[in-house]
Amino acid sequence: MTRRLRPTVVRLARRLWPGSVRARATLGATAVVALALTAASFALLGTLHANLQRSAKEAATEQADTVGRLAAQGRLPDLLPVAPGADFIQVVDADGRVVAASQNLTGRPPIGHLRPDEGALRATWSGEPFHDEHRQRIVAVTATTPGSSTVTVYAGTSLRDADQADEITSVALGIGAPLLLATVALVTWWVTGRALRPVEAIRSEVAEITGHALHRRVPVPDSRDEVARLARTMNVTLDRLEDAVVRQRRFIADASHELRSPITVLRTQLEVALAHPDPELWPDLVSEVLEDTIRLQDLAADLLFLARLDAAEPVESGPLDLADLCRTTLAARHGDRIRIDARLEEGVTIEGNRSRLTRLLTNLLDNAQRHAGQHIELAVHTDRAAHTAVLEVSDDGPGIPDADRDRIFERFTRLDDARSRDLGGAGLGLAIARDIAGHHHGTLTAEPHPHGARIVTRLPLSPQAPEVP
């Protein structure tokens, strides 16, 4: 039976639990204040009651001690005066007879039978000797008279003030606590609503943003709180998203255009071969078809590599000697149009993926081979101030205009479209190289050069690299 009830109770609790942040915040704040107020009320009532009880006990004790000293000295009058703070006094002998009393107890029987234990000075208890609506705090003190008889002095103080204080405090808390809780709930509801109003505006705006309306931005409230920072972060994210979508659409359009050109050429060549089945023309035709097929294959490989870079797939990384990587890459190159002069500083160690950094260097060298006149230079050195490794590839070609130094790293960008197409460039080499540098927390820039182009890669040195003297 218990197992069956448990899921039902859980479902009921989930239904009753408020769904909005505003309601949960209000409920939580009210509950916390209610618990704190309850604890404070009990503490206040307990402290007040204890203080009043202690005051009544002290007043009764002082009166009983005073009368006990009078009894011990044999100066006990029949009518006992009542000091301020005490309500009544009564002295009873060992036989239970009233020896002396205050005026308000004259003619009354003994008010109590409780006496201090043997060897004790006094006893204290609460009672209602007058059958009054208020209790009394009674102190009993034993004294020995000069005649060696033992008498018990009873002094009492009414707890009327303590009872009235408890009652007034309880009524005040009973009325004030609900009003305070209601005020807390209303204030929390109002403050939470004002705080969440910008969040609702952000939510509404984000709900309206679609793939065709990425230019829209969420409103930023005029404040310096977390909501304003959230709105600014959301707008920065939307900026990046819009930029990524624009780049993706441009990339798809450019890729479609670039793929369509070699495919169209291949189709034309094959149609010519079918229209003119002359075996003497086939070697030249097959050579052209093979050249376009290789170009199409390279383009597809570049597009796949860019897609992997965009997906940020994890790759193996480790310390690499940049000079050794350059020597290995140069040794593997055959048939370059222009000889490459290398100036490599030893001991330049970076963290990275060897395959991708080899691809970066290969793309830079291929770009230089396409545009250089008679000279290409590869240099590796260390920037001591920035604690970075610097890889430079420069050539004596036509150079790069100042206005195009950043544009050449965009995908499918050719400064001379016809010339680049003839030389086999698709406009992806430098874009891939910059993305590889970015994935290695580095930069790739085109910098001024007096006699051509100069492409500079800067990569952070490995933490394991020795300090540069």
What does this structure look like?
With 469 residues, the chain is α+β, with helices and mostly antiparallel strands. It has three domains: 17-208, PAS domain (Beta-Lactamase, 2-Layer Sandwich), CATH 3.30.450.20; 227-311, Orthogonal Bundle (Helix Hairpins), CATH 1.10.287; 318-460, Histidine kinase-like ATPase, C-terminal domain (Heat Shock Protein 90). Helices cover 52% and strands 17% of the residues. The protein is built from nine helices and 13 strands. The strands form three sheets. A six-stranded mixed beta sheet has the order 1-3-2-6-5-4. A five-stranded mixed beta sheet has the order 8-10-11-13-12. The longest helix is centred in the N-terminal third of the chain and has 53 residues, at 21-73. The radius of gyration is 49 Å and the shape is rod-shaped. The two termini are 80 Å apart.
